[in-house]
Amino acid sequence: MPQQVLVTGGAGYIGAILLPKLLERGDSVTVIDKLLWGIGPLLSIIGHPNLRVFHADARDPARLQPLVDEAEVIINLAAIVGYPACQHHPTTARETNVGIIEAIANRMRPSQRLIQASTGSTYGAVEGICTEETPINPLTLYGETKAEAEQHALRVGGIPLRFATVFGVSPRMRLDLLVNDIVHQVVHNHTFVMYEGHARRTFIHAVDAAASILFAMDHYDAMSGRPFNVGDEALNYTKLEVAQRIKNQYDFYLHCAEFGEDLDKRDYAVSYQRIKSLGFGASITLDQGIDELLKVCPLMKPFSIYRNF
Ligand SMILES: NC(=O)c1ccc[n+]([C@@H]2O[C@H](COP(=O)([O-])OP(=O)(O)OC[C@H]3O[C@@H](n4cnc5c(N)ncnc54)[C@H](O)[C@@H]3O)[C@@H](O)[C@H]2O)c1
């Protein structure tokens, strides 16, 4: 059944893949986005009769509230994404990452549905295998704000989706993401300096991240009021293993450095059994994602604007 869907931050990396899928299903889609990365990512769908795009700041209640009121489903993607960007803009990060979802949750009626884009960066340092029962212990402002945001979503029965690190090509490219970053750097420099290569990380293609949002819309009653790790055990790799998979397709010099650290302390194997038990799994492998990145990154400039900091 087609629905009225509001997507905050819909012109971003994940939103630009999600929106065409919603429109294909017959949903009517409203986007509110500050257009930090321009309108380019939505140009191919902008003429669709069921799409409306508002260039506005979702922190502004006068702009957000009327759109929340008319929506059946709200998908909150708007954020200052990643710890470097949050460190650079701490006040904006808090107002955006927490303030918008708080305002949405305060405004919502019980019949409305809410899906919140969250992240594995909420966990912090984890011993053993990370499940949704693992205590949340964020170590950066990004993780903290996303963890606080989850609480607002949960109190109205919303579904926080804790995405693995996303990779792959989107109409709004991001090159600050680990896999995308390595591929972009090696095709331009033929070298990559890696720190904490043995850290265990977990990944998901942007197409599958978008698919998980549709999945949550379709399984809302079963998922409502609980967080879900979104990824696939088949995509748990160490950073060094990722570099090796890239090397299999494109040779480069890998230097393992003693300096540098991930402030989110992401070094864990993640369990995806909760979402898998409902039927969700990734459809795109790391090798497939690397293959498409190797087609695109040589065509991009060595110094790119597509970084979130
Ligand atoms: N890509 C990943 O690896 C990843 C992983 C985990 C979680 N997430 C989460 O998924 C969501 C989407 O991430 P993305 O990769 O698409 O990021 P992105 O930076 O590409 O997109 C975010 C969008 O939000 C918009 N925005 C920012 N502040 C706004 C405001 N005040 N009002 C309206 N719009 C605003 C930006 O213009 C941008 O279009 C975020 O909430 C992020 O925390 C992403």
Task: Looking at this protein, list some descriptive labels.
Rossmann fold, 3-stranded mixed sheet, UDP-galactose 4-epimerase, domain 1, 309 residues, alpha/beta, binds nicotinamide-adenine-dinucleotide
How would you explain this protein's 3D organization?
It is a single chain. The protein is an alpha/beta fold and 309 residues long. The protein has two domains: 4-164 and 205-230, 3-Layer(aba) Sandwich (Rossmann fold); 167-202 and 233-299, UDP-galactose 4-epimerase, domain 1. 37% of the residues lie in helices and 20% in strands. A seven-stranded parallel beta sheet has the order 3-2-1-4-5-7-11, sandwiched between helices. Strands 8-10-12 form a three-stranded mixed beta sheet. Helix 4 (90-107) runs parallel beside helix 5 (141-154) and helix 6 (178-189) crosses helix 9. The longest helix is centred in the N-terminal third of the chain and has 18 residues, at 90-107. It binds nicotinamide-adenine-dinucleotide (NAD).
